[in-house]
Amino acid sequence: PQHRCKTLLLAPPASRRASSQLAMRPKARVRLSLGPCCVLLAAFLAVSGSELPPCRDMYTSGSAAMWRNCSVHIGGLAITGPEDFDKMFGQAFGSYLTELYNASHGLEFVALALDFDQNFEYVEGNRIDFIYSNPAAYTCLMVEFGIATVASMINLRQGRGLERFAGVIFSRADSNFTTVQSLRRARVEAVSISGLGAMQLQQAELLSLGLDVMTDVERLTFAYNQVRIMKDVESGYADVGFVRTDLIDSQVAAGATTWETFQVINQKEDASFPFRFSTEFTPEWPLGALPFVPFEVMELVADALMDLDSSSPDPMYRDPAVAGKFQTWVPPMNYFGLLSMLESISYYDSVTKKCLRSADVYGAIACPAGFVKRAESDVFCPDDCKEGYTCVCKPCAKLRDPAVVLYAETLTTDWLGGVDLPQLEARTTLQSQCERMGLCSVVASGQRMRWTVLDQIGRAARLTINAPLLSQVQIRLRFDGELLNMSASEVTLTDGTPTQAYTYESVAGEIGSSIVQILINGEQAEMSPVVVENFAQPQRQIVCSSGQEALEDGSCSDCPPGHHGALEGVPPNVKHVCWLCQPGFHQPLSGQSSCLPCPPGQISSELAATECSACEPGRSTIGMEGTSTCFPCEPGQEAPLNGSARCTLCKRGTFASDEGSLNCEACTEGKTTSEVGATSNDACGCPPGAYLMSSGACQTCPEGVSCDGFEAPPRVQKGYYMKPSAALDVAQLEIYLCVKEDYCPGGAPGTCGERRDAFQIACGACDATSFEFGSSCADCGESSALSAIPAVIIIIIGCGLVLGFTWFLSNNPATKNTRRLTLTAMVTLIMASLQTMTVFRELAVKWFFPLDKILQIGAVFTGDIESAKELKVGCGLPTSPSAKYTVRQCVPLVCLALVLIASFLKRSVKGHSVVITFANVAGTLLNVFFISMILGAVTPMVCYDHPGDSGSSVRSNPSVLCWDSAEHATMVGIGATSFLIIPLPYAVCSVLMTHWLPRMVSRMDQKESLIVIGTRFFFERYRAERYFFGLVVLARSMVMCLIPVIFMTLQTQVILVSAVLLGYMITQQALQPWRSRLTNVFDGVSCGLLLVMLTSGAVDAQTSGTIFLVIFGLVTLVAMFIAIRRVVYISPCYDLFICHDPREACAQARFLKLHLQEKTSGSVFVDMSTAENLEDLLDVVKCQTHTLLMYCTQSTLTNPDCAAVLAMAYKTRRVKVRAVHQRGYFPPMDDQIEDIFSFVDIRGSRMGQSGVTPLDVQEAFKALVNIPITETYVVPRHCNAMEALTFSAAAILDEASPDAEELEPIPSKAGMYVVSTALESQESVAASMVFVELVRKLRPGALDSLCHLPRYASEDFELLGTVVSQARGIFVFLSAGSLRCLQQLAVISEAMHGAKILVDAPPPVMQIRLPDFMPPGEGYYTKVLPVLLPNFGDISKYLKAFMKLRLHFFTAHRGEAHMESEAASIMQFFDKTETLTSQTSLFALSTGFREAIEARLRDFADENNNFYRSSSVVSDFKPRKSTSIRDFFTV
Predict the structure, then answer these.
(1) How confident is the model at residue 314 (pLDDT cuts 50, 70, 90)?
(2) How many CB atoms lie within 10 A of CB 1175?
(3) Sign of the four-CA dihedral 103, 105, 110, 115
(4) Longest dimension (CA), the chain
(5) Dihedrals φ, ψ of 83, to 5°?
(6) What CA–CA distance (Å, rounded) separates 1498 from 1500?
(7) What is the pLDDT, as a whole number, of residue 301?
């Protein structure tokens, strides 16, 4: 057989050689038949030995040299005798190996049969080179001597190769021995005590199940032959037998017995094993090499054995395997698992790492723990034991537990008369069986004792079971005492067993614990040492109970009441006596051991008292117990009751001036004392929190006033104010609450902050030489004449800002793009946030730094220009609060007047409409400062309450009392007037504009378009569908401003304002109303941060409020930076914007873009249909377009989006406009331009909201049709679709238009890709050209050999048919005119005709539909097609078959990425269909599936009719005739 590569797992690792020595050397294979001569030769060598010297003697130990010209000895365990071993393995281990390696290596192999003892002797003495043994013995050899496993045998049983075996426990089928536990009364028969498969495996299995064959079975017989075992069980000589797994099966196969005769005990299941078994598995027998054998020799032997095969056709490799009854040999198996099994049956010692080696049965018996091996004469039972058998009966005897017992007992002792015997007996304790280091006895010192050591086995039993005898027993009574011999005596145990007891008598020694040791045969006994404890002898004496006295007659008597028991004398000579109770103590009972002290408040003044008396009122025992005297109370104290333990101090508001007072007297007129324990009426005064009135009574301090009590006058608290002339001794103090604590530092009445007027209520105004600056007053300086200059400067700067703002906002709307609107919206939101902070300032919240400073800055936006400290604006304003308020409310009117003036100036300079300019600018200002105007109007009504009946003040002017002064009435009137003049009309107009906007946009006549443009300030910042959100902003502002007016408590104000902010934030985030994402995000974040700052201020969380204020500032800066950057840096910029009607020219625009980008490096914008809204398109025109190309088809100018783009391009005055007039385009006439609403559906568009009016559209159309104004290219009407596209591309690039040339004929070339379209459809031709370019972009090199039919003459249908039939692939683009194009019908017919008649695979046909194609109905086949192509009936069949092909779509209006995806999908399907051998699978679709596809196509066309106009295949039909079409169909 061919050599097979095998891996050897050799152990130990030290025996492995270097890798260079592992190479297999070539072997000379001599094919000789192992006939009878070879068998005789092997037998001769085994008997007479080899003539060559042993290799192990020629080469030194550890030599790596290869053995040459020497003999190798293989020893094997011959369990059935040497003759059987030689017959089975003489060939395999001898002649076969010699034949292989004698000629090539000079090696001669000799097989030696060994018994069990020789197994170990030969290996230990290095008398063999290899060993073959059973797995158990081999495992022991491997562990002890480091044998390396060379190979493992695969046994051959009943024609199957087995690498493992197990043991069988069986009995006769009709016996009662069916379970493991029933074996306890059975006669068991095994092969030998060292047999693995027929003894040791069963012994280990039964031991794991709780049965030990050495102790539990009735008889254990060794038959030394497994066939005998089977026959003995069958005959009844043995009850249970142990055999190897395949023994009974082989006898059944030989006809010697049947399985029905036996039953298997503890049978296990394993589907992969063919025989019945009862134990765990073990690997088959191994062959191992001794450590000195070279690796190369091991490798030669392993390789040779693994080549043996019982099924080999070569007798050289078959005969040794058949003789040995094995199948083959394999790499080594794992035998270490047997160690735990051998250790469990005490065959292997894990400490010494050795196994039992004796083949002698008695020497190999190992008894379990608690048992001892009986004498050899008692182990074997020759009765009823067959000749040649070995019978063992109960070889292990169980020992008593424990074998030796120690105990102690007391002997009669003569005690002295004073010893208390009952107590002594009660304390004495003796253990029946003493344990090591346990307490054995507790006895009195001097007690006579006997110590006994009892042998529970006995001398006779020990001799019987071969147990050691007790030859000498000694005792040591003290740790350092001498050893004393114990006397032996014969005794009988309770069960009648005779034995010996060893005793020794002693006397308990000194008091305390000691150690007693027992030595047996000179060694410490198992229970030794033990602990003994000796106690002192208890003495008897007369003792009385506690509370009694001893009488002379020796009896005891109880002590009488008033007395207590006591001991008299020195121990032990003491006497019980009764003593009298001392003063301060008492005892009402008799027989008590002590007297009780009188409790606090009670006394006893005599001896032998039996009770205590209570102290009278005014006296106490000062908290002491056991006293005999009551003491009078001191001044300032009282004792109103009998039996007072202590006198209590007089409470606050009371006093006691006499000694021994029963009760304290109360202070009059609501007065109190400063301390407890007052001793006179002079200590009474007003309590803290009250002040002394002129009447002498005390009055409680009101809010805002601190009263120290007694004679101290009341003081004003910080943050409160009292007039300088206020009376301090009246019942009602006039107190006012200051808006800020800095205004009123507190102290004496009339005390105000620095530079504040002390005569103004609540210090609410600065003095005449100062002005308000935040919470303080700043100095105006010495010169009052120049004090108005800062105010004048502020007014001039404000006017300039208003004029500039008006000029900026009234610019051309065409310059306003989304980015600028985003920046404007960001500024508006920041201003709104600052004004919202001003609303926070009006709440009843005490703001902390730095929020108070931020709110102060925000106050400027409400017209509070006094806060500019350095400019001293407040010094130039009137001092009266109403006058200041009037000036503040006039600021919006002045600004509106300036806006009106600026609007007139703008009109005179640029001709702008005054009304539109004024409306937009004024509306923008009112929108931005709406919160400020509302807050300014309601400022007089935002009041806060003073304590008591002092009324309320205006929060912004605390010196003005609400509803109680003419000053306040004037301010309220001015506020109401200003509210009615500006905020209210603006809010009403905003509501009306929002309500009318949808109707005006839908109608969009000239007047309404002007109104929309004039009000664009209110809507242009929002998305078109969220035009109403301006009302939400106004509502939020108005509600927040009214909350401080209606509600005056802090909690209500904070909750309502927070609810408004939270509701607005949720609404804004849900609607996303702003036109840019940045604005939406900033609005939500800023609103949230304002809400957090309000909450922080309300709960006085200064740290968190400051953090969120910093975050608000950072967010504002980042958002403004992004908005400004987007305005400054606009990208991308397009060199050309191709404006087209997506319903007619999407593919044409794509083609032009691809063509232009191929010729130039400029960027082109064509994605009109993918823009989100019209505003995005107009933004591209305004800011990102250099040149606008109007690609004019039939309906371009009727498209409202195209009209708006054109109008915006002209309005910007910087975008260059060019036009291309395609075939079918007719410019609008003058009457159509004048009646623009009938020409363009403006009313249904959104151009009005985008700043484009009908007038703008009219002006743009006039400029477009005026060729001298607009650069225009007109495509000649005689051009076909291909020429029109080529002309358009050349005109845009300013190239010379190509001359009309006669089209070339179709190239006659096989293997081309044919692209067919409707010849007269520019959209279809352009779509096919875009498809080709995209495919070449996605797949470079694809479609190189291309026949694009629109480029060639198409009248020669015979040539066309040839090209189609020889094409590699056909791409048919179906559009609205395809079913009227004869060329496309011819291509379809030829392609489908070829699919029916050609033997070879026809070219794949791809049906690609454009969105404007409608599938033909049945009327087309019956009415139109016969008129178009008469006398050609097959065309209908081919066309219907073509319509069933796999559908592909190619849409140009969804963007370049979608077109690339569709092109890739088409080519991927083309690659699959190109490999098909039949075209039938392309169109053999079920009717239901085809109808579903056609229905979906119709739905698709209906969904997209906003982009495409579907062309009927019947409308405008004109039949054509061709002379060559008949020839085409003939082919």
Answers:
(1) very high
(2) 22
(3) negative
(4) 170
(5) -65, -45
(6) 5
(7) 95
